[in-house]
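Title: Prediction job returns without error message
Component: structure pipeline
Severity: low
Priority: P3
Assignee: unassigned

Description:
Job completed but the reporter wants confirmation the result is attached to the right record. Sequence as submitted:
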Amino acid sequence: MQEKSYHLILSEKEINIIKELLVKELLKEDHKDILNYIDDEILAQDKEDDINSPRKS
């Protein structure tokens, strides 16, 4: 069975609505661990970006 992939072109407004719905779903008690994982990934990426960015003098 061949896997299908889809590409969507969304407006900024549509993306924000999807983000809101996703966060609302993730904030439910069952999904707190997923939300914590996402937070950890964002913090790790921010830290990596800080390390890799040149210092401003």
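Comment from assignee: result matches the submitted record. The chain has a mean pLDDT of 81.
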